[in-house]
Amino acid sequence: MKQSVTGTRRSVAALFLLPALVLLGALVVYPIGYSLIRSFYDQSGDGFAGVDNYKALFTDAGIRTALKNNVIWVVFAPTIATALGLVFAVLTERVRWGTAFKLVVFMPMAISMLAAGIIFRLVYDQDPDKGVANAVWVGVHDTFAEASAFPKAHPGRDSPLSPDQGGFVTKAPVRAGTPVALPLVGVAPDQMPDSAKKAVRAPADPGKITGTAWQDFTRGKGVGTLGAPDPSELGYAGMRVEAVKDGKVVASTKAAADGTFTLPASADGARLRLPASNFKEAYNGVDWLGPALVTPSIIGSYIWMWAGFAMVLIAAGLAGVPRELLEAARVDGASEWQVFRRITVPLLAPVLAVVTVTLMINVLKVFDLVFIIAPGSSQDDANVLALELYRKGFSEDQPGIASAIAVFLLLLVIPVMWFNVRRLRREVRR
To answer: Closest Cα partner for 81 from 336, 312, 416, 414?
Structure first.
């Protein structure tokens, strides 16, 4: 019986390899072969479809969108995750609590894609009271742009006000010496400004226009008087009031805490307008999971998970970089940026290549995050090939097209894997 160079009998070696070969054939070779054959058959699996299923990859709108999104994923997700991993690995070398920081950044890797998808579905919720992203965004926005306190306010029945370009204007001109009543309804008590006080009737002033803008509503049937401030009713503190003549604003003011306001004599004979700025809807943040931003948002959640993976691998490579080279460059007068760009990055190039290629293969197969995070209304816009394979194979019962997508994904992965294997072989030769 023949023996190998090491003296091991080939039959014994084959016997030990047989279980692995059987598993490889059953779990890898057979599914690939079956998918390849099935991709040439129609929906029923009985009729030969030729290359029609592959033509659908470039004619079906859903698959084209998925292909476009996969290109975006492959270009941006691995690049950004690797770049962040590089920055974290380099900076944490000089931070006292670098190990703790690395642990925090790497921690998302311990979370499953399913759990991460659920987390970020909540993070990107449109409601600022639920979604962290919009809570922060709205907080920053409202810091620089004052929000309206009366978005739901509107005139009640028998009101002296009529609609005007998103706001309201008095139906008749006002006269000096005659107090003006501007009653509104529609603002919930808990939504009234904290500075609001009990509304009072404005005193008459012969040389000026005075009036009151208030919430003309008192709880209880038959309680309160319409068109006049009641003891329990609050003034519209901060309500902007403009006097308009011939389409031009001749005077303006803001209501006091009790809803009273005063305009100069120049407002005599004008109409009072409550401009639309008083009633604009409160800023509700960004629609992170809308058609325009859903793909970048999901990529952001992927980077949150995998930047730690990139950081750990790059930090391991950085530990093998000769410190003498870095110190010599600093002694020669190189800045930290020059050391990083001309020495650190070139020496880490093999590690960066490994990380980038690994993440590229990973994003070609991304499914969980897109399926969970993207709501039904924008899932078509966030579609990727792995998700489209699932939808064609199970939701739409088109196994032929699903098999074609699977074969296409395999063809996309093979060049990346070939590049990685070839690079590894070159490293071994060195």
So the answer is: 312
Q: Output DSSP code: residue 359.
A: H
| Residue 199: inside a domain | yes
Would you say 81 and 88 are in contact if contact means Cβ atoms under 8 Å apart? no
Q: How many other C-beta atoms lie within 10 A of the C-beta of residue 211?
A: 23
Burial class (CB in 10 A: 0-12, 13-18, 19+), 333: exposed
Any bridge partners for residue 241, and if so which? Answer: 253
User: Position 169: which residue type?
Assistant: V
Q: Which amino acid is at 91?
A: L
Specify the pTM.
0.75
Question: Residue 180 corresponds to which tokens in the numbers above?
Answer: 């003006």
Tokens standing for residue 5: 């160079």
- Of residues 103, 5, 35, the one with CA closest to residue 410: 35
Domain co-membership, 396 together with 302: yes
Give residue 193's domain range.
161-278
Query: Are residues 196 and 216 located together in one domain of the fold?
Result: yes
Mean pLDDT by 10 residues, the chain (430 residues): 58 87 89 89 84 87 92 95 93 83 89 92 89 88 71 84 89 92 86 86 91 85 74 89 92 93 92 88 84 94 94 90 86 87 89 91 91 91 92 88 91 84 73
Q: For residue 193, give both structure tokens.
A: 């400004």
Query: Distance (Å, rounded) from C-alpha 373 to C-alpha 132?
Result: 15
274 and 319 inside one domain: no
Q: What's the number of CA atoms in the CB half-sphere (13 Å) around residue 353?
A: 15
Angle between helices 61-91 and 52-59 (to 10 degrees): 70
Q: Running DSSP on this structure, what letter comes out for residue 266?
A: G
- Give the span between the Cα atoms of 85 and 312, in whole angstroms: 8
| Phi, psi of 170, rounded to the nearest 5 degrees | -65, 145
Q: Where are the alpha helices (DSSP H) in 92-127?
A: 98-106, 113-123
Among the listed residues 356, 382, 305, 413, the one whose alpha carbon sits nearest the alpha carbon of residue 83 = 356
Instruction: Tell me which of 260, 278, 296 is where a domain ends.
Output: 278
Please report where in the chains the tokens 């987390």 appear, as a residue: 119
